[in-house]
Amino acid sequence: MKYRQFGNTGLEVSAITFGGWPMGGTQYGPTDDDSTIQAIHEAIDHGITCFDTAAAYGLGHSEKLMGQAIKNKRQDIILVTKGGLTFDPDKRRLFRDSSEKAIIEGCDDSLQRLNTDYIDLYLIHWPDPTTPFEETMNALDQLRMAGKIRHIGVSNFMPSMMEDSLKYVDLATNQVGYSLFERRVERDVKDFCEKHDVGIMAYGSLAHGILAEKMNLKTEFVNWDWRSTKNVFGMPFFKPDYFEKNLNTVDDLNTLAKEHNVTVQNMAVSWLLSNKIVTTALIGFRTPSEVRNTISKMNFELDADMIEKVDKISEEAYKFNVAGEDMSPAVGTWNPWDPKPSKFGTTSK
C-alpha cells in the first residue's frame, strides 16, 4: 500500500480509502453486514488506513457498522464521516441542513454511532444554500476546539464555496467525484484545490462500478439502487446507449491493462493517483476478496507513456458522457447550490 499526505493535515493516509456508502445497505445494491465487517478487517490488514462513511448512508447504519468493525483498531486508522443532511420522516427525504444546530447535533450523533470520542476528518456532505458558510464553518471550529473532530473538510463544493469557507477555517480536503469517466472536477475545482493546498478525496473512482469489470449489458439494478435511475450525478453512465459505449471503453482499457498484467481498476486508480492533488481514492469494498484482489497489485504505477495512453481513452469516454450531462434543477447534483432534491433527495453521495 502506498501512502500520501492527507491534504494539509500533516497526517499520512493510504492511497486507497475504504468507502462506506455501499455498507449503508439502502442505495447501493445488496450487502451483507458480516461480510462488510470482514472486508474492513481485511483492508486494515492490507494497510488501508482511511475509512470513510456518512450519517446519511443508510440513515446511520453505515456509521454503526463502521464503529463496530473498527472498535479495536481505532488508534490505527483515520476515520472520516460527513454531516449536513437531515432526514424528514414525513417527506421521507434527506435535505441539506448545515446550520450550527444541525452540524453540532449531527456530529454528536455520529460520534455515538461510531462508538468513538473523536473524528479525524469531518466533512460537510453537500453545501447548504440556506445557511451562510460563516455559520457552518464556525460550528465546525467549535467541534474542533472541543476535541470532537481533528480536521475540517467539505464535499461537493465548488471554488467559490471553498473560497468563502476558507475565510473562517482551514479546509483539509474536498471530496468530489473523479474517475476516468468523470472529469468535471478538472473544470475549476482541481486548480483551486492545488492553489489553496486542499487535498482531493476522489469518490466514484471506479465510475460507480463500471471500471470494476463486473458489469455487462445484462446488468440490472434493484429499484432502490440509485444507479437504477440511469443517472450518475447528472451524468448518463447507465443510460442504454451510454452504458454500452462505456462497457466498450472498459474493454479497451482491459486490453491495455493485460499488457502490464494488471486489472482495469488498478489502472484506473493509478491514473487518478498520478494527479498529486488527489490524496486518496475511495473504493466501496463489500467483501474481503474484493479487498485482496484490488490491493494485490496496488504498487503498480503508470509511466508517462501509459498515462498518455490511458488519458487518451479517458478523454474520449469523458467527452462522450459529458455530452449527455443533465444540469436540470430536477437533478441538482453537480450544481451544489440547487436545493431541489432529486428522486433520492440529496442522499446521493
Describe this structure in words.
By secondary structure, the protein is an alpha/beta fold. The strands form three sheets. Strands 3-4-5-8-9-10-11-12 form an eight-stranded parallel β-barrel, surrounded by four helices. Strand 9, helix 5 and strand 10 form a beta-alpha-beta unit. It has one domain: TIM Barrel, CATH 3.20.20. The C terminus is likely disordered. The protein is globular.
What distinguishing features does this structure have?
single chain; 349 residues; alpha/beta; TIM Barrel; two-stranded antiparallel sheet; 35% helix; globular
Q: Tell me the name of the CATH homologous superfamily.
A: NADP-dependent oxidoreductase domain
Structural class: alpha/beta
| Amino-to-carboxy terminus distance | 25 Å
Strand content: 15-25%
Task: Tell me the total number of β-strands.
Answer: 12
Mean pLDDT: 90
> What general form does the structure show?
globular
Please outline the major beta sheet: 8 strands, parallel, barrel
Which value, in Å, is the CA radius of gyration? Answer: 19 Å
CATH class descriptor: Alpha Beta
Low-confidence stretches: 329-334, 337-349
Task: Work out the helix count.
Answer: 10
The SSE string, one letter per element, is EEEHEHEEEHEHEHEHEHHEHH
> What strand order characterises the main sheet?
3-4-5-8-9-10-11-12
Give the fraction of residues assigned to helices: 25-40%
CATH architecture: Alpha-Beta Barrel
Tally of structural domains: 1
